[in-house]
Amino acid sequence: MSWHGTSVVAPDHGLPEVAEVDVCVVGGGAAGVAAAETAARHGLSVLVIERYGFCGGNAVAGLSGTICGLYLSSERNTNRPEQAVFGFAERFRAGMAAAGGITAPQRYGATWTVTHDPLVWREVGEAFLVDAGVRVLYHAMITGVVREDDTIRGLVVDSKAGRGVVRARRVIDASGDGDVVFRAGLGFTMGQDGTVQNPTMIFRLAGADVARFLEYWGPDTISGPQVQGLLKREHEAGRYDLPRGKIWLFPTPRPGEVLCNATRLIGRDGRMLDTTDPWDLSEAEFVGRAQVREYARFLKDHIPGLEASFVNDTGVQAGIRQSRSIQGVERLANADVTGRRKRTDGIARSPWPIELHVGDRPKLEWLHDDVYEVPYGALVPAVGENLRGIAFGIALTCVFDLEVLARIDSTRSFHGWRLRWKAFWSALRVSRIRGLAMPGVTICWRS
Fold first, then answer.
1. Burial label, 380 (beta-carbon count in 10 A; 0-12, 13-18, 19+)
2. Whole-number average pLDDT of the chain
3. Which 3 state secondary structure label does DSSP give 229?
């Protein structure tokens, strides 16, 4: 079954105009909050449109639960974290820490991560926006674009109140699925030769004896050989349905709670699921919740410290690892990451490994003691003269293996780099986004 995706209306659309702003940000996840708050702090009128009743995107609705990409991976120094990313990502981390909503760094293989409280994420994200003067429209979805020739003039918004148009001088697509690009009929890619990275259903276990759990599990949040072998044996014996044999468990800021990244969602017939297809995404929800119960039962039965645990919650929806990638001016490639490429037009930096979720065991390729940079052109759609749209976050232009890099919170909030934002946003008032001269914009490594 196919759906009609492109939805373009002319400037004389006849719909009521419900708002007019300098910048309209679609999506209130990490990328959207970072873009909207920064733009508003530098004098632009900004509206965020978010389909849920809260901020957080995949970090909250998908319960991804960690801020990854803040710290270097290293073979030389495995006893303490070395932070490599600051700027907005660090300001946000510090805001959650002040609210008691984030852990100290935890080992994750050769690097470190922190685990957050999803309610605190919502509250801090919302506070960042409100304090900066950003207007927020919850419970609304983008269903079309207002387009004049190749210029996006606004967005068609649907809500329970009906349909309306938001006029915007600039549109930032931080939807996570490239929704504005898709509705505008612009180019995108998804997956590779029919393969997409598996979605997941993350869940939290309450009632855990965290001290006993850590004594058994060890300091690394990634399951060790003993647990992986046990998962494999129990699955093959048919005692549990455990399609993923390498899992990650993180103590959270809440007492007696462990965050579980364990499931691997595929269709009941074994097919890969396209999470932009509502039929497939619906199946992912059914399959995901069933898998959660199986992994929770396994953990309760076999892992010391989790004997009295119970499922406290799952994500509001399945966690998305791969969605649409825009066809941008430039494409981030594997060689850019493995070669630790630095750029004069770099708008972001990250030390996060190549992370591939296909098959029963996630694969990691570490970038020891260094970072790579994301080019500005990977965020800008290639097609459309004077196109006033720019895609941030998970939809950036990259190859298949790098999709997971695009979804981590530090990447989606520009890896904590700060441009000289006042100059950048002032230029957006008058310049074509595609022609913006990024080398002329100062980039600060630790601000």
1. buried
2. 84
3. helix
